[in-house]
Amino acid sequence: MSPKRMISIWFFIGCLLTAYGVLILGAGIQSFFVAPAGEAIMPWLHLQVWWGIALLTLGLIYVIRFRPAR
Asked: Any idea where the domains of the chain sit in the sequence?
């Protein structure tokens, strides 16, 4: 029987960042089609889209780097 390998905590953090990135990116894409309920400051920057892309990218880097199959 081979010893069990432990899964790095950074893999789970990468999974969380990826999930949050997908959710925030989805909300940002939705804001292109539906006007926000309140007044937003500088809405032309689309910060939800940029923040979602950043979290998604960082999360995927962690997931790929610390995946348990390595």
From this structure: 9-65
14-66 confidence digits (pLDDT tens): 999 999 999 999 999 998 888 777 777 787 888 999 999 999 999 999 999 99
Position 8, amino acid: S
- Give this prediction's pTM: 0.83
Q: List b or e across 27-61, with b for residues whose CB sees 16 or more CB atoms inside 10 angstroms.
A: ebeebeeeeeeeeeeeeeeeebbebbeebbebbee
Angle at 53 between CA 48 and CA 57, to 5 degrees: 150
